[in-house]
Design brief:
Blueprint (H helix, E strand, L loop, with lengths): L1 E6 L4 H10 L5 E7 L13 E3 L2 H6 L3 E4 L3 H13 L5 E3 L6 H10 L4 E4 L5 H16 L4 E8 L9 H13 L4 H4 E2 L14 E7 L5 E9 L2 E9 L3 H14 L5 E3 L1 H6 L1
Parallel strand pairs: 1-2, 1-4, 2-3, 4-5, 5-6, 6-12, 7-9, 8-9
Antiparallel strand pairs: 7-10, 10-11
Helix pairs in contact: 1-8, 3-4, 5-6
C-alpha cells in the first residue's frame, strides 16, 4: 500500500485528498503536515506533524496543494534532508520557486501541474491543433474561478496561452495581455488575451476562443467538482513513484 503524505492538508483540495484516500484501494493516508492545528478529524493512526523532515520520512509520496511559500519550504527540506517523489499542484509559483523545482528534480521525481484535470490535458492538445491550423484567428482566453482564488490569471489559463503561442512560434511574454481599458487602439494581429473573472464558488471554467471573420471556435472546459483535482493528483502520484528523478508534467503521466 502506497503511503501518501498531504502537504497543505487544511486547504480545500487537501481535505478532499484525505477524503479520497479513505476510499482508495492502492494508497492510504500516512501523514499530514500542519503548521498550527488541524480543525477536523482524520483516520486513526495517521501521523500529524509540523516537522517537515518527519513528514517526509513518514511518506512514500507527497502531494502538495499549499502556498508558494510553503512549497519552497517543502522543496528546500526535501533537497537537503529527505528525498521523496512529490506531486505539486500549488499555483502562483514565481520563477525562483519554479527553478527550485528543477533543482529538486535532480534528486527526486517531481510532477508539477497547475491543474490536475484530465480534461484540461485534452483541451490543451486541442488548443495546440487549432492555434497552429487557424493561424489568422484572434485568440481570446477567459477563465472564471471562485472569489477566494488569490492568483490571477490562473496557472491553467497561462499554460493554455503558452501552448497557443508556441503553436505559432511566438514568445508568449511579448504577445500576452491581461486587460483592456480606454482608447487603446485596435487589436494587434498576434495578441493573445488572457482575462480573469472571479466570483461565487465557481470551481473552474476555461474558455479558449479562436475568432475569424464569419466564424469562430470556442473550446470550453468546466470543472464541476474539486474532487476532480484530488483524484487526478492521486492518479498521477501512483505513476510518479515508478519514475526516475526528473521534472514531469501531467501530460507525461497520462500519455506514457
Amino acid at each position: 500500500m502506497l503511503g501518501i503524505g498531504i502537504f497543505g492538508a487544511t486547504g480545500r483540495i487537501g481535505k478532499l485528498l484525505i477524503e479520497a484516500l479513505q476510499k482508495d484501494k492502492e494508497a492510504n493516508l500516512s501523514c499530514v503536515y500542519v503548521r498550527n492545528e488541524l480543525q477536523y478529524s482524520i483516520p486513526q493512526g495517521v501521523l500529524v506533524t509540523n516537522d517537515i523532515s518527519v513528514f517526509l520520512e513518514s511518506s512514500d509520496l507527497i502531494i502538495d496543494f499549499s502556498s508558494p511559500e510553503a512549497t519552497k519550504l517543502l522543496l528546500d527540506t526535501a533537497i537537503d534532508k529527505v528525498q521523496r517523489p512529490i506531486v505539486i499542484g500549488t499555483t502562483g509559483l514565481d520563477k525562483m520557486q519554479q527553478d527550485l523545482m528543477i533543482v529538486a528534480s535532480q534528486k527526486m521525481p517531481i510532477l508539477y501541474a497547475s491543474n490536475m484535470s484530465k480534461g484540461i490535458v485534452v483541451l490543451n492538445k486541442l488548443v495546440q491543433i487549432v492555434s497552429s491550423t487557424l493561424k489568422d484567428s484572434d485568440i481570446e482566453i477567459v477563465e472564471v474561478h471562485h472569489r477566494e482564488k488569490k492568483d490571477s490569471p490562473s496557472g491553467t489559463a497561462l499554460r493554455l496561452a503558452k501552448t497557443c503561442a508556441e503553436a505559432r512560434e511566438l514568445d508568449i511574454n511579448k504577445v500576452r495581455i491581461s486587460g483592456r481599458d480606454g482608447m487603446i487602439g485596435k487589436r494587434s494581429k498576434d495578441e493573445i488575451a488572457v482575462m480573469a473573472l472571479r466570483g461565487g464558488d465557481v470551481v473552474g471554467r476555461h474558455s479558449v476562443g479562436f475568432y475569424l471573420d464569419g466564424e469562430y471556435i470556442e473550446l470550453i472546459h468546466n470543472a464541476t467538482s474539486r474532487m476532480t483535482f484530488a483524484n487526478g493528483a492521486i492518479d498521477v502520484g501512483k505513476w510518479l513513484v515508478k519514475q526516475k528523478n526528473g521534472l514531469y508534467s501531467i501530460e507525461d503521466a497520462l500519455t506514457t
